[in-house]
Amino acid sequence: MSLKHAILTLLETEEGSGYDLLKRFKDRLGFFWNASHQQIYLQLKKMSEEGLIEFEHETQKGKPNRKVYHVTDQGKQTLMDWIHGSVKVDKVNDAMLVKLYAGHLVNPEVLLAEIQKHTDIHQRMLNTFLALEQDYLSLDDQEKPQYALPYLTLRKGILGEQAWLTWAQEVNAYLKQL
User: Fold this and answer.
1) Residue 10 contacts by C-beta under 8 Å, 6 or more apart in sequence?
2) 116/122 Cα distance (integer angstroms)
3) Kindly report the CA angle at 25 between 21 and 30, in degrees rounded to 5?
4) What's the pTM?
5) Mind listing the pLDDT tens digit for each residue in 142-167?
């Protein structure tokens, strides 16, 4: 997936400024796709030049005008073409796994400390995902259908974090035996 498709996805449902997109990225897609402030603004400029999005200047009181972006017909077609196409399976580049693979070179305590640091991070992420899941589950039955597909992306995140934590328990148990 490219940043372009992520931006088109966000703008397709709701127009917004670069700042709005940055916030939506963080709140909605940031759990599985990262983009910096600079990357988003550079991509918006490029997409505007390609005719995938357009913007209108919105006057703000006491602040500079802001650009509010929306998807063009060409942008919608680009998004639809991408959705209908296939995507590559992501490969994992995980430095923690490389470190563990080379772990025979160090005292197990070094790896235990690193696993614990990562376990804390993954547990916090799982807690965040579970709280978001409760938000979804508390919606009334009429609201749930519009959030069902984002909920399924959330479920993938929950299952991934749970699997990571289960794996970490196995690693901890082994390292403590050494």
Assistant:
1) 16, 21, 24, 25, 28, 29
2) 10
3) 170
4) 0.83
5) 999 999 999 999 999 999 999 999 99
